[in-house]
Every structure is written in structure tokens, then in C-alpha cells.
Amino acid sequence: MKEIKTQYEALKGSTVGWDVKGDSEQLRTIAQRESILGLTRFREWHRHVFMENCVNGVWNLKDVENERFSAVKATSLEEFVRQRL
Q1: Among candidates 47, 45, 50, 51, which has minimal Cα distance to 32?
Q2: What are the residue boundaries of the structural domains of the chain, listed by start?
């Protein structure tokens, strides 16, 4: 996430805010607590699970096999951010 923030700031030419929701243990605790809230707060629970997995590196894509997916164009982080400015 810090890498995305840094890239965005470089391309945008301005500072971006950073809202820390907690470390991985805090995020796990929140997600577990909110998992019992049912469908009415599913999105809130899902957001915390997503953040926890990002912080822990669970979803880091190390061995991406781009050659297996010829219809998908690989891009750099810089290009990804540039397309969304």
C-alpha cells in the first residue's frame, strides 16, 4: 500500500493522506468480531478481512504467470496508477 501511495504522490505531484486501520493483529481481531454481525455488515467485515490479507502479504502475487493469459496485458504499478488519475 505504501508503494501505491508513493507512486500516486509522484504522479499527482501532491501529498496523499494515509489512514492506518491497524496492524495485522488488530485487523484480524476486528474481522473476527465483525464476522458475527451477519449480512447487514458484510461489507464492513469483508473490508477488514481484505486489509488484513493485504497487510499480512497473503495476497502478494510473487509468481504471476502472465504468459498463460495472453488476453490480459500486464502493466506496471506506475501505469496502473496513471490510468486512474
Answers
A1: 45
A2: 2-60+74-83
